[in-house]
Design a protein that fits this description.
mainly alpha, 4 helices, 63% helix
């Protein structure tokens, strides 16, 4: 098989994969795709905070649309945030450090109120 035939076969395989994955709709045009936000420590912490609030049953789960308490999951997220606090000691900006401490304080209070019942 020569190089030209290999390229044609590869192109054909790529097109059939696209069809099997996307069907007739290849997805939105590239200019319609929203931009991804800049990755920051604050954004990362807020994601973990939201996950903990969902686990504590304070916020409805985005898929199930239910508020359900999951003590082990909430505990895991709180411990993860505490580990981040310990591992990043003296390496965070003052606002990041105070935000992390505030998040941990709030989540621990919520956890004790929920898990202690």
């Amino acid at each position: 098989m020569n190089e030209e035939n290999k390229d044609e076969v590869k192109k054909s395989i790529d097109e059939s994969r696209k069809e099997s994955v996307f069907g007739d709709n290849p997805g939105p045009p590239a200019n319609d795709i929203p931009e991804v936000p800049e990755v920051t420590f604050g954004l990362f912490m807020s994601g973990l905070l939201m996950e903990a609030l969902i686990a504590l049953g304070d916020v409805e789960h985005p898929i199930t649309k239910k508020k359900e308490l999951s003590v082990p999951h909430a505990k895991f997220i709180i411990e993860t945030l505490n580990m981040l606090k310990d591992k990043t000691k003296n390496n965070l900006a003052k606002d990041e450090e105070s935000s992390l401490e505030g998040i941990l304080y709030d989540l621990r209070l919520r956890f004790v109120n929920k898990a202690g019942k």
